[in-house]
Amino acid sequence: MSELSILTSDDEAARERLNAAAAAMVARTRGWSQHNTGSNNVEGLKAFAPKLADAFSELDASIELVQGPGFESVGNDGRVTEAHTGPVIEITSRPSAPLQVVMSGHYDTVFAPGVFETVADLGDGRINGPGMADMKGGLCVMLEALKAFEAGPSKNKLGYRIVLTPDEEIGNFTSSEALRRAASSGALIGMTYEPAMETGAMSGGRKGSAVFDIVLHGKAAHAGRAKEEGRSAIEAAAELVVGLEGLNNQFEGVTFNVGSIDGGSPVNIVPDIAVVRFGARAPDQQSAEWATQQVQRLLAKATARDGIHGHLHGGFYRPPKPRNSAQQALFDAVHATGRAIGLDLEFVDTGGVCEGNNIFAAGVPNVDTLGVRGGRIHSAEEFVITESFPERALLSALILNRLADGRLDGRRIKDLMGR
Q1: Are 33 and 412 in contact (CB under 8 A)?
Q2: Which residues of the chain have pLDDT under 50?
Q3: Cβ distance 153 to 405 under 8 Å?
């Protein structure tokens, strides 16, 4: 049996502490989920951030709320403006310790104010609520795992940098530099608290993700008196959309999805503006480059039409996170650690993306679904499985214990990143 799968007295102490905290974890997450923190609810994010920082002040760490830079936003009229969101919460503990970890999570949700704001007990150990699983429950798991670790004897051997972000659901455009900086400060591994699947399975390899906006301009004209004088931006956009969707199944693993066409005008006017908004996913850098080239080709085709001009915004904001040798070594270590508490963890490759992609891009292997078990995320049916709070907090505490006492060799795992 691997020594990772054996419980020490320190591990047992963490388990006792976290089992005792189970009800409090659920209650705290219920309270947090009653605060609307939709990604575009700037006031809601700013109001909640100090409450979150106050909770994390229970750790032996310094905490700073940092207002990140603005980011580009394309309006329905094609105009580009600067958007802002809530503060990034940066937490640092023992930066001079011999072993370092980067941890991350987000406090925004996909739910705008008034869309989904109630928390309800579904029975059978499940609670429905916005962010209960994705990922205010995960933030609570992270906090309690760290408290359990810091109550043990290995505390001073390991330091950490935590980045809690207000914009993960819209791309981490404000917080990406904070994530990169934290990951690049000597971290051996990364730990991110997206929810695990309902079954307990976790994410393995992840595709890269892009968000694009193409703005097309035409020429307005009276649709009845002078149709021939107009140049329809909607017509050009329609051809572009057909071309984009036609890219699916052309390169293995690459997918495109057009989310919306904005703009247009009354039906008696030839429309002179259209904004095509779409996303793409790619499993590796080569396929991401191919996808970008195809977007540029289709834009050139659209703007070659008589009277049409336009511009492209966005790109691959999260690079792919393949299952390389370092990732697999970390997954194997986490799997062996899970066996110590009766978990047979499975790592499943997925097309989804998260902050783990950013951390991987900074050169740090990471496991990014250490949060609670749950399901139906990004819908009003989102739920969390309450028994997973102490279970998943204990898994993280054991990972930290093993890093600190050397049973989990973080340096060896990180060294594999270059192979």
Answers
A1: no
A2: none
A3: no
Tokens of 44: 């809601």
DSSP string, 75-90: -TTS-EEEE---PEEE
pLDDT in tens, 40-88: 999 999 999 999 999 999 999 999 999 989 999 999 999 999 999 999 9
Tokens of 163: 């980045």
226: three-class secondary structure by DSSP:
coil
Helices assigned H by DSSP within 71-229: 136-150, 176-183
Which residue from 398, 406, 358 is spatially nearest to 148, judged by alpha carbons?
398
40-48: long-range contacts, CB 8 A cutoff, minimum separation 24: 40/85, 40/112, 40/170, 41/112, 41/113, 42/84, 42/85, 42/86, 44/86, 44/113, 45/85, 45/86, 45/87, 45/107, 45/108, 45/166, 46/86, 46/87, 48/86, 48/107
| pLDDT tens string 215-267 | 999 999 999 999 999 999 999 999 999 999 999 999 999 999 999 999 988 99
Contact between 82 and 173 (Cβ < 8 Å): no
